[in-house]
Design brief:
Strand content: 15-25%
Radius of gyration: 23 Å
CATH class of the largest domain: Alpha Beta
Pfam families: DDE_Tnp_1_6
Shape: elongated
Protein name: Transposase
Structural class: alpha+beta
Length: 268
C-alpha cells in the first residue's frame, strides 16, 4: 500500500487578541493511486504536531494494515510525529522546518548568523558540536521532553564566530533548544536532502492537495453543525461522498470493474 500523507483543511482553534474561534482541524489520509480517502479524523488541536498517531490508527482500522510509504507536509514536523512514524517502521518523508535547514551560504563565504543547522548533533553522546569545535552539553530537560544544550561562556567569548553566534546581552554562552527526538529530526533532515526523496515528495501536491480542492469545489467550505461529535459525523459524510465519486468515476472509465459483487482492478 502506498499512501499519501495527512493534510489539514484550513480550519483551526485559534486565539487572537484574547478571542477564541472554535474551529476544528480535519485530517485525511489519501491513497496515491486513486485519491481514495483511506483514513480521516477531526482534531481540536491548533496544529498538526501530534496528529500522526491518530492518523495511523485510522488507516489500520479502515484498511487492516499500515502504509508502506507516506509523505507529510512540514506542519507535521515534530518529535512526537517522527517518533510515531519511526515506531510504525513506515518509510516517511517530512520536510525540515526552516530553522533546522542548512543555509545555502557557508559561514566562511558570508557574514550570516549561526543557526541550529550549523551545529552537528552527536546522538550517541547527546551533545551538539559548534563550528568552533566546542561541545554544547545538555543542561536542562523538562517533563515534556524539551531539552536545552549550552556551551561554556569563557570558550564562546574567544571564538571567531562569537559576534555572529552569541546574542545574550548578559554574556551567556550559546544555547540550542530541541526535544528528546533530535536524533529523528537529524535522520529526517538527511533523508529529505537526497534527490530521490525530493522527487517522491513532489508527488504530494498532485495527490492530497487535489483532494481538498475537490472537496471545496464540491461545496464544502466549513462545518454546518456545532459540537465535536456532530462535526466528526459531518466530516465522515464529506469524505464518504468524495470516495463515492471516485469509485463511480473509476467504474465508468474502466479503471475497475464489478466482479461478484466486489470492485476489482481492470487488467491492462
Amino acid at each position: 500500500m502506498n499512501l499519501e500523507s495527512f493534510a489539514d483543511k484550513d480550519a483551526r482553534i485559534m486565539g487572537k487578541k484574547g478571542h477564541f474561534y472554535y474551529n476544528y482541524n480535519p485530517q485525511i489520509r489519501v491513497d496515491s493511486n486513486n485519491q481514495i480517502i483511506v483514513g480521516q479524523h477531526v482534531s481540536q488541536n491548533a496544529n498538526d504536531k501530534q496528529e500522526v498517531k491518530a492518523g495511523l490508527e485510522s488507516i489500520k482500522e479502515n484498511t487492516g494494515k499500515r502504509p508502506d510509504k507516506m509523505t507529510l507536509d512540514n506542519g507535521y514536523q515534530s518529535g512526537k510525529n517522527l517518533d510515531a512514524l519511526e515506531q510504525s517502521q513506515i518509510e516517511s518523508y517530512v520536510p525540515t522546518n526552516r530553522n533546522d535547514k542548512k543555509p545555502n551560504e557557508s559561514l566562511e563565504e558570508s557574514n550570516r548568523s549561526l543557526v541550529k543547522a550549523d551545529f552537528i548533533y552527536n546522538e550517541e553522546h547527546d551533545y551538539f558540536r559548534c563550528p568552533g569545535e566546542q561541545c554544547l552539553e545538555l543542561k536542562t530537560k523538562d517533563k515534556n521532553g524539551k531539552c536545552v544544550y549550552q556551551g561554556e561562556a569563557n570558550i564562546c567569548v574567544g571564538c571567531q564566530y562569537h559576534a555572529r553566534c552569541c546574542q545574550s546581552k548578559k554574556g551567556a554562552a550559546r544555547t540550542i533548544n530541541t526535544d528528546s527526538h533530535e536524533g529523528l529530526r537529524q535522520k529526517m533532515r538527511e533523508r529529505m536532502e537526497r534527490e530521490d526523496s525530493k522527487e517522491i515528495y513532489k508527488q504530494r501536491k498532485v495527490i492530497v492537495e487535489q483532494v481538498f480542492g475537490q472537496i471545496k469545489n464540491g461545496g464544502f467550505r466549513g462545518f454546518s453543525v456545532r459540537g465535536f461529535s456532530k462535526v466528526t459525523g459531518e466530516f465522515s459524510l464529506v469524505c464518504a461522498a468524495h470516495n463515492m465519486k471516485k469509485m463511480v468515476k473509476a467504474i465508468m472509465t474502466g479503471a475497475v470493474r464489478p466482479m461478484f459483487g466486489q470492485i476489482a482492478p481492470q487488467k491492462a
